């Protein structure tokens, strides 16, 4: 890796670092400078051979994006702060603005308000091809008339890197993604997974300050998807490139991210490490989007709640009230047979379906008492419980009566 | 790309399928094959009568003398000065109208695709009109241009009242006039042929090029044009073939002057009883087949070359 | 690290930046592109529309006297050209022949192509390629060349087998429309999985004719329509074969009439063109409606 890094190391590196410091001290002055007439020139000077390559920080501040002719904001005062070398995943359903955020960062979309900083420099007015970021698209982004090797060389070629040099770098990148032996193939002769690895190599070859991945795995088979996602993470860790990864697949997000930003309606609802996000969701949207969750009726004082007679601690930011919904994960519910259970807490339920998931079992139940039906807007209250397979009561079958009890694990009330 | 993969899947399965079970059902398979051939028999019989037979008649006739014996003498007429001149004019008109048609039609296809919805109204209207105008050869096209810049044409009168200049009434049958008329069906033809090619240019390529640091010039010279080039060339060759084969428009404009090869064929067919004209129509037709076949082979070669990555 | 988004850190900066509107680089490029687009399309369409407009004016303004009148149009729609001193019998005869020819050609073409293409598509890749090669061959053999070879065949046909009725031009016309029709149907065949459709319906107990008429044809409907419309357009515009074989059709009639009254034949040409546009726009609308109703499901 160090050998490759050296390509970027030039005398200009020192001055670029100095310029970057100047930026930090007086952001407004440089802002005017960059937005002046010679946007490109200024940007070129500042971005050329930045010493921060492979580790730029990112700040997106109050970014507003409105598509022409649209009424709603695709990005609504969007804020994102990423540390150098971090891998952040933007996660959300379709139309939540995650791809728009990524494309705005790349410069592929104009923004109507706010600003974008990379490595401390304002790049809001810098055109895409001067931002020194590289993007991997969902699919079909490889140039079909070039071989894998020529594709990887492309970014270096447009930078005027000599033929020998760029061939060497490109081969190294192909080796990194394990495709050195496919270098001479045209991209149509490759599988979808191989194509995306070439796209990754092509992006990394220019030593981008930021690597942008726009649902790079969604067009692939499940098995390839898992392999490639782990490979992306390994390479990202070894190169230390700041990376923004957009996906709608929560499993993918949980597997690769340093931090996950869950997006909804053009905003980040919560950004946190995967585990925190799962265990301490800040909003109902986040709780329901990531993993399975049960919405159970309870009474809350803001710090503790009572659900099915059981007292449980609440996550800070929970709602208060006599009739709130408490969000409890399936694994935080205990299931027992009426005969075994001598405690006074818990609620009777009828088993509907039992799903065996190998070491785990998931049991779908319906609460027997009609008392909660009114609370649940007239619908039967369904509760899903997950437990280790060996804890499942022997002989449990559909239609059996069981007692469901929440475990005293912190939950969110809303 | 994925479509190609998806297609390969069933094809491979198809190939593997019959061989696995062939031992038990070879008789049934044999019957099935016979059935397939039987169903396609009318098609082949028909094309043999009305496509193959005429072609054979042309080729054989080119090498036959009056008594039906083999001869190369018919080809002497081919090297007469006026025949050579007709071939040169035909080829010149075809090349010029194809170059203009390909460039203008290519640009128009590009203009129709960029920044427009795939099923936008403008695009659909233009492609529907193009498909009509591409077929709009012949007599009707001649009328259109006579009405525009013929002796009593609207354009001729307009130019005269506005500038006082009288357009040469023979301009239509001059080389530039003929080229202009041919462009009228070449441009729409190019739009129909080339629109799918421009459609296949993915916006991701431009975005990828930009995000890798390429500017607009680099995008065009390194990505878009090289990808479009093979299909542009083969479209150009098809346009050439269509102009070279065109007969009706020229025939309607000047029936008495054999300045183009198709018009010479017409003349030769009318004078078949003339001893000097024996087999001349067949020779000319044979020469046309050769020219068009060369063009088609070139087009095939270009496509095959691009096939390495397409 | 694990708290909600970084709002608190950035609000201070946001106050300053919100006043400055970020440069709209992409929008500027889109504007530039749309100007180029407009210029190209305007010039191209102008070139295509000027002769059509000239045709229209030509039919309305008498070339010698300069008087404006709708006489040619009245003549066509009343079927009486006496006011202009023209005999329209030839025109009606040619139009009738061309319309009959287009119907017969379409029927013959469909009978010849559709069953063959479907069976071969399912059963034999090699035969399919052979048929494709043969069917697109007429693109390589100019009509004028074909006529040279068809001459003796038609002489024999009209003398010994059939007669000189122009309807028999349909045999040659099927060959002329074949490349276009073949492509239209091939597009349809490739867009549906015929093999699976056949296997599914066969496994449900459908007989071959039933499979063909109830399953395949409905799925190919759109491309059959498209093949037919294109064939009609080609037949109505055909001049080469008819004129050189000495048969009457619409185009030959137009040409003959053009010698005596160019206004009427220009008006008729415009009508034929309009008919072609209507045909193809209708096809476009039908396929659009079909696509929408499919997506609607």
Describe it.
Chain A is an alpha+beta fold and 414 residues long. Chain A has helices at 2-8, 12-25, 27-34, 39-47, 98-106, 148-158, 163-176, 192-205, 222-239, 250-256, 274-279, 284-289, 371-375; strands at 58-65, 75-82, 87-91, 113-118, 121-122, 133-136, 210-214, 242-247, 259-264, 267-272, 294-301, 304-307, 310-313, 320-328, 333-336, 347-357, 360-367, 382-388, 401-406, 412-413. Helix content of chain A is 31%, strand content 29%. In chain A, the strands form four sheets. Chain A has a six-stranded mixed β-sheet with strand order 6-7-8-3-9-10, sandwiched between helices. A five-stranded antiparallel β-sheet of chain A has the order 13-12-11-14-20. Chain A starts with a helix and ends with a strand. The model of chain A is unreliable at 1-54 (pLDDT under 50). Chain B is mainly α and 310 residues long. Chain B has two domains: 29-62, no CATH class; 76-306, MetI-like (MetI-like fold, Orthogonal Bundle). In chain B, helix 1 packs antiparallel against helix 11, helix 6 crosses helix 8 and helix 7 runs antiparallel to helix 8. The longest helix of chain B is centred in the first third of the chain and has 61 residues, at 2-62. With 297 residues, chain C is an all-alpha fold. Chain C has one domain (87-296): MetI-like fold, CATH 1.10.3720. Chain C has helices spanning 7-17, 25-60, 71-78, 89-123, 125-136, 143-161, 170-191, 194-203, 208-237, 240-244, 250-260, 262-296. Mean pLDDT of chain C is 84; it is low at 1-18. Chains B and C meet through helix 1, helix 2, helix 3, helix 4 and helix 6 of B and helix 2, helix 4, helix 5, helix 6 and helix 7 of C.
């Amino acid at each position: 890796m160090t050998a490759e890094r050296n390509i970027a190391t030039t005398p200009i590196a020192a001055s670029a670092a100095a310029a970057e410091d100047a930026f930090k001290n007086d952001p407004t002055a440089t802002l005017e400078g960059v937005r002046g007439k010679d946007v490109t020139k200024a940007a070129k000077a500042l971005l050329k051979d930045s010493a921060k390559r492979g580790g730029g920080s990112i700040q997106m501040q109050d970014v507003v994006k409105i598509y022409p002719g649209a009424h709603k904001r695709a990005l609504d005062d969007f804020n994102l702060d990423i540390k150098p070398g971090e891998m952040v995943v933007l996660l959300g359903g379709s139309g939540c603005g995650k791809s728009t955020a990524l494309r705005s960062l790349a410069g592929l979309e104009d923004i109507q308000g706010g600003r974008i900083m990379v490595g401390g420099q304002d790049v809001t007015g810098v055109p895409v091809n001067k931002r020194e970021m590289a993007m991997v698209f969902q699919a079909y982004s490889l140039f079909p008339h070039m071989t894998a090797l020529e594709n990887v060389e492309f970014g270096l070629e447009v930078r005027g890197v000599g033929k020998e040099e760029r061939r060497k770098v490109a081969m190294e990148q192909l080796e990194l993604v394990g495709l050195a032996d496919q270098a001479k193939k045209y991209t149509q002769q490759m599988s979808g997974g191989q194509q995306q690895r070439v796209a990754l190599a092509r992006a990394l070859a220019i030593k981008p300050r930021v690597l942008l991945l726009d649902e790079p795995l969604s067009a692939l088979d499940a098995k390839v998807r898992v392999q490639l996602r782990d490979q992306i993470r390994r390479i990202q860790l070894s190169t230390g490139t700041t990376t923004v990864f957009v996906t709608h697949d929560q499993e993918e997000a949980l597997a690769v991210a340093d931090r996950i930003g869950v997006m909804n309606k053009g905003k980040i609802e919560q950004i946190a490490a995967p585990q925190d996000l799962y265990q301490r969701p800040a909003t109902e949207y986040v709780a329901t989007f990531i993993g399975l969750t049960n919405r159970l009726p309870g009474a809350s004082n803001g710090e503790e709640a009572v659900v099915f007679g059981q007292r449980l601690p609440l996550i800070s930011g929970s709602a208060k009230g006599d009739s709130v919904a408490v969000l409890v994960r399936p694994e935080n519910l205990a299931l027992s047979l009426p005969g075994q259970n001598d405690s006074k807490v818990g609620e009777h339920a009828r088993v509907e379906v039992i799903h065996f998931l190998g070491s785990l079992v998931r049991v779908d139940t319906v609460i027997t008492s009609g008392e909660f039906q009114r609370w649940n807007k007239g619908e039967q209250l369904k509760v899903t419980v997950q437990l280790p397979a060996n804890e499942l009561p022997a002989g449990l079958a559909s239609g059996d009566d069981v007692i469901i009890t929440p475990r005293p694990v912190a939950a969110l009330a809303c | 790309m994925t479509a190609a993969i998806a297609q390969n899947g069933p094809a491979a399965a198809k190939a593997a399928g019959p061989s696995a079970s062939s031992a038990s059902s070879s008789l049934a398979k044999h019957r099935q094959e016979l059935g397939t051939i039987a169903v396609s028999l009318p098609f082949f019989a028909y094309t043999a009568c009305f496509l193959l037979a005429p072609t054979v008649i042309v080729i054989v006739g080119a090498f036959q003398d009056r008594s039906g014996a083999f001869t190369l003498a018919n080809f002497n007429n081919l090297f007469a000065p006026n025949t050579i001149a007709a071939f040169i004019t035909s080829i010149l008109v075809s090349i010029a109208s194809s170059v203009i048609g390909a460039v203008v039609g290519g640009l128009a296809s590009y203009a129709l695709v960029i920044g427009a919805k795939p099923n936008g109204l403008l695009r659909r209207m233009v492609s529907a009109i193009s498909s009509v105008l591409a077929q709009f050869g012949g007599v009707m096209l001649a009328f259109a241009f006579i009405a525009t810049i013929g002796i009593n044409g609207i354009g001729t009168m307009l130019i005269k009242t506005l500038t006082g200049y009288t357009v040469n009434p023979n301009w239509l049958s001059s080389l530039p006039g003929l080229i202009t008329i041919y462009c009228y069906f070449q441009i729409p033809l190019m739009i129909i042929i080339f629109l799918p090619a421009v459609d296949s240019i993915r916006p991701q390529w431009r975005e990828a090029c930009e995000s890798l640091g390429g500017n607009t010039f680099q995008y065009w010279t390194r990505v878009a044009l090289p990808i479009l080039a093979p299909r542009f060339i083969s479209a150009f060759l098809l346009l050439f073939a269509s102009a070279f084969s065109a007969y009706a428009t020229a025939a309607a404009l000047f029936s008495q002057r054999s300045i183009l090869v198709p018009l010479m064929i017409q003349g030769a067919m009318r004078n078949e009883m003339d001893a000097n004209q024996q087999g001349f129509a067949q020779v000319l037709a044979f020469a046309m087949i050769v020219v068009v076949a060369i063009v088609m082979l070139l087009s095939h070669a270009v496509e095959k070359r691009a096939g390495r990555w397409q | 690290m694990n708290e909600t988004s970084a709002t608190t850190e950035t609000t201070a900066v946001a106050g300053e930046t919100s006043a400055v509107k970020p440069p709209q680089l992409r929008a500027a490029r889109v504007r530039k592109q749309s100007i180029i687009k407009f210029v190209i399309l305007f010039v191209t369409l102008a070139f295509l529309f000027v002769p059509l407009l000239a045709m229209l004016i030509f039919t309305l303004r008498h070339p010698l006297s300069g008087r404006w009148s709708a006489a040619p149009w009245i003549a066509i729609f009343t079927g009486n050209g006496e006011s202009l001193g023209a005999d329209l019998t030839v025109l009606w005869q040619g139009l009738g022949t061309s319309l009959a020819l287009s119907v017969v050609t379409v029927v013959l073409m469909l009978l010849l192509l559709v069953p063959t293409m479907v069976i071969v598509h399912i059963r034999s890749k090699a035969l399919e390629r052979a048929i494709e090669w043969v069917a697109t061959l007429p693109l390589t053999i100019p009509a004028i060349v074909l006529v040279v070879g068809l001459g003796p065949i038609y002489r024999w046909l009209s003398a010994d087998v059939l007669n000189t009725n122009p309807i028999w031009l349909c045999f040659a016309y099927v060959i002329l429309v074949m490349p276009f029709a073949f492509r239209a149907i091939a597009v349809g065949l490739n867009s549906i999985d015929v093999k699976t459709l056949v296997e599914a319906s066969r496994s449900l107990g459908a007989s071959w004719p039933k499979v063909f008429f109830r399953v395949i044809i409905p799925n190919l409907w759109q491309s059959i329509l498209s093949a037919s419309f294109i064939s009609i357009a080609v037949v109505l515009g055909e001049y080469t074969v008819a004129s050189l074989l000495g048969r009457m059709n619409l185009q030959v009639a137009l040409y003959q009439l053009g010698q005596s009254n160019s206004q009427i034949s220009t008006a008729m040409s415009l009508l034929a063109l309009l008919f072609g546009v209507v045909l193809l726009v209708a096809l476009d609308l039908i396929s659009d409606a079909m696509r929408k109703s499919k997506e609607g499901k």
